[in-house]
Amino acid sequence: MHQTKKGNQWYFGMKAHIGVDAQSGLVHTVIGTAANVYDINAAEALLHGKETDVYADAGYQGIEKRCEAEAVRWHVAIGADSLT
């Protein structure tokens, strides 16, 4: 297991990346990674290939620039402090 720092807080262990169908609300993919793995690096494995739109948090900023993610439209939520 690895460690990662977010702000001034250290986190140790694992992180779950979860893919959920927007219409049904059912989970279709669950991936466990070390805590130091960036969300954006697990994104391709969360896609099953039938998506047209993907909604994600700020950990996925810049994903639309990756060639493996060009087939879908990304909607990434970013914090208000990131806009200034």
Automatic annotation (TrEMBL):
Domain Transposase IS4-like: 4-79
Full protein name: IS5 family transposase ISRso18
Entry's Gene Ontology BP terms: DNA transposition
Recorded coiled-coil stretches: none
Superkingdom in the source lineage: Bacteria
Organism: Paraburkholderia humisilvae
GO molecular function: DNA binding; transposase activity
